[in-house]
Amino acid sequence: MHSVDPTESKEILTRLKTTRGHISGVERMIEEDKTCEEILVQLLAIRSSIQKVSAVVAQRYANTCLVDALEKGENQQEILNKAIETIMKLSQ
């Protein structure tokens, strides 16, 4: 990611590794024939983890990527439209 603080990168990577662990856990749970409720709880944890990563990256996008584009003289309306479109996709 462009212009990312090393601490922030570490946070993002940690969250993604946690998500990977949850996914592996769900695979094991299915192999071990765990209950649907147990599996759904883990799936909720995965979704929450991904949402947190998305929020951190979206914030970084707004704080640096958009500002960089504006400073480079790119078309403000195009930048804004692209940002809105990208962030709206996160909520789907």
Automatic annotation (TrEMBL):
<dbReference type="GO" id="GO:0045892">
    <property type="term" value="P:negative regulation of DNA-templated transcription"/>
</dbReference>
<dbReference type="InterPro" id="IPR038390">
    <property type="entry name" value="Metal_Tscrpt_repr_sf"/>
</dbReference>
<dbReference type="Pfam" id="PF02583">
    <property type="entry name" value="Trns_repr_metal"/>
</dbReference>
<dbReference type="GO" id="GO:0003677">
    <property type="term" value="F:DNA binding"/>
</dbReference>
<protein>
    <submittedName>
        <fullName>Metal-sensitive transcriptional repressor</fullName>
    </submittedName>
</protein>
<dbReference type="GO" id="GO:0046872">
    <property type="term" value="F:metal ion binding"/>
</dbReference>
<dbReference type="InterPro" id="IPR003735">
    <property type="entry name" value="Metal_Tscrpt_repr"/>
</dbReference>
